[in-house]
Specification:
The protein has 384 residues and is of the alpha+beta class. The chain has ten helices and eight strands. It folds into three domains: 114 residues, Butyryl-Coa Dehydrogenase, subunit A, domain 1 (Orthogonal Bundle); 95 residues, Butyryl-CoA Dehydrogenase, subunit A, domain 2 (Beta Barrel); 142 residues, Butyryl-CoA Dehydrogenase, subunit A, domain 3 (Up-down Bundle), CATH 1.20.140.10. A hairpin with a 2-residue loop joins strand 4 and strand 5.
Length: 384
């Protein structure tokens, strides 16, 4: 395996190549339900069940801890394939995957972190625990409040964008108390935890990225895995900023690639129009720019040197993937002419799904300020 961050064989399959081939086959199955889920706004529950039975949720756990040890580049390929068939499945799975990749990286590269992350990784490997994240809600600034009580804290928070909320076991989250963010794993079956169905959106409608309301959950002292200053970059967030986004943006790349394939198939049915070749060429160039940018993100993650510089490199890649993936789908719509306007082609769903690439951290203006400040030698500690 080339460019692999985690070593090992791929669990239920003989090697990583067969893992990605299996992902491509499963994506074809996911595609048969994608339109229905999008129309209904219903969660891709059946797809998640198939992923669990195939061992994908534990794929990135190190072999030594019971997983398959699949590397970040290969997990990106898996997510990209899933998203070709169903963007919502690819994106939701990416949210679980980066919450496995990050502690797995720490287990490999930070000996002092092994004791903290090993129980979680073993749990994922042995029980197929599905991890949730609230994404931008729990970015560097933190969100929610914790009140100090005897033996711990009482937590009150409303977390948004919790992808795959109905299927999750643990929400990896944090809350603010006296200027500190307390990080912990929240059991989704706790009586103080409620899913609030708010997810009625333009795109990625089947991710079930609902709100999660936390009303008085008791967080014990020994359940806090990290305490950090709110509103400032911490080394953990440099790891997150470097490793998570190649996985997340693999989903949007997959959406763009599938739109390109659909548009070419439709265009081939309309011979003789001179504009088709030019539009097809522009679409190919734009998609290639997204692919090159994503490869650069993966390569930066593969250097295993999380830092302010690596965050900047990955976030620049995130911007380029987003801009070019969105433009690729727009060109696919144009190339397909009126046919693409019909829902049955699947293009308009992809046009809506790819818009989600705009909204993950770091947003356009913040990323520009971060990159520019870093280039000028100015501090970036509080830019997020």
């Amino acid at each position: 395996m080339t460019g692999v961050i985690f070593e090992g064989k791929a669990g239920n399959v003989t090697d990583v190549q067969s893992l990605t081939e299996k992902a491509a086959r499963m994506a074809m199955d996911f595609a048969t339900r994608a339109e229905r889920h999008d129309s209904e706004g219903s969660f891709v529950e059946e797809n998640y069940g198939k992923l669990k039975r195939a061992g994908f949720f534990r794929a990135a756990v190190p072999v030594e801890l019971g997983g398959s040890g699949v590397g970040l580049p290969e997990m990106c390929d898996v997510i990209r394939h899933f998203a070709k068939g169903c963007g919502s499945t690819g994106l939701a799975f990416a949210m679980h995957t980066h919450q496995v990749v990050i502690p797995a990286w720490r287990w490999r590269h930070q000996p002092q972190a092994k004791a903290a992350v090993e129980p979680l990784l073993k749990r994922v490997a042995t029980t197929d625990t599905i991890l949730l994240t609230s994404g931008g809600t729990d970015w560097v600034g933190g969100s929610g409040q914790a009140e100090r009580v005897e033996g711990g804290w009482r937590v009150h928070a409303r977390k948004t964008f919790v992808s795959a909320a109905p299927a999750g076991t643990l929400l990896i989250t944090g809350v603010v108390c006296d200027g500190e963010v307390l990080h912990f794993a929240l059991p989704m079956d706790a009586p103080e935890v409620k899913i609030v169905e708010t997810w009625n959106t333009l795109g990625m409608r089947a991710t079930a990225s609902q709100d999660v309301e936390i009303d008085g959950f008791f967080l014990a002292e020994d359940k806090v895995v990290l305490r950090r200053k709110a509103g400032e970059w911490h080394p953990l967030f440099q790891i997150i900023g470097t490793l998570a986004f190649p996985l997340i943006y693999a989903a949007y790349l997959g959406v763009a690639e599938s739109a390109r394939d659909i548009a070419l198939d439709l265009a081939r049915m309309r011979k003789g129009e001179a504009r088709q070749a030019r539009l097809a060429g522009e679409m190919e160039l734009t998609l290639r720019a997204a692919q090159f940018a994503h490869r650069a993100m993966v390569a930066e993650a593969g250097r295993n040197l999380p830092s302010a510089d690596s965050v900047s490199e990955v976030m620049m890649g995130r911007r380029l993937v987003a801009d070019n993936a969105i433009r690729t789908v727009e060109l696919a719509m144009e190339l397909s002419a009126g046919r693409g306007f019909y829902r049955q082609t699947g293009l308009e769903r992809r046009l809506r799904d790819v818009q989600g690439a705009r909204y993950h951290p770091m947003r356009r203006d913040v990323a520009e300020l971060y990159a520019g400040s870093l280039a000028l030698g100015d501090p970036v500690t509080a830019i997020f």
